[in-house]
Amino acid sequence: MAATSAPVVSDQTTKTSGAPIPFDFSQPPLIEGFTPPPRLKEESFKEKFIRKTKENPFVPIGCLGTAGALLYGLRAFSLGKTRQSQLLMRGRIFAQGFTVVAIVVGVFAAAVKPKQ
């Protein structure tokens, strides 16, 4: 016995003439009951750096301490001062730890801080 299959006819018809575009990709979607916050002006790198430094001043301090210990330690290593170089590399690790702790505390403080 051979099985015969009937062709499937779709009840949906497509309308291509005169239909409005359901979504304009150049604009954000309109959601009823939601008003997006106004866009603030774009800030430059310098403005953002100053704002972030004021929010958490210990991160740049830790970064500068890390870079200073690294550079001074590399200089001591190149001059053959191995003891001083080892101490400065340990200081660099301490400064890196300080920076990571400052970042974590800053993120936690920003999460707990009430929005204005």
Automatic annotation (TrEMBL):
Residues 1-26 are annotated as: Disordered. Residues 30-116 form the HIG1 domain. GO terms for biological process: mitochondrial respirasome assembly. GO terms for cellular component: mitochondrial membrane. It is found in: Mitochondrion membrane. It comes from the Eukaryota. InterPro entries: Hypoxia_induced_domain, RCF1. Its main location: mitochondrion. Keywords: Membrane, Transmembrane, Transmembrane helix. The chain crosses the membrane at residues 58-78, 93-112. PANTHER family: HIG1 DOMAIN FAMILY MEMBER 2A, HYPOXIA-INDUCBILE GENE 1 HIG1 -RELATED. This is HIG1 domain-containing protein. It comes from Mugilogobius chulae (yellowstripe goby).
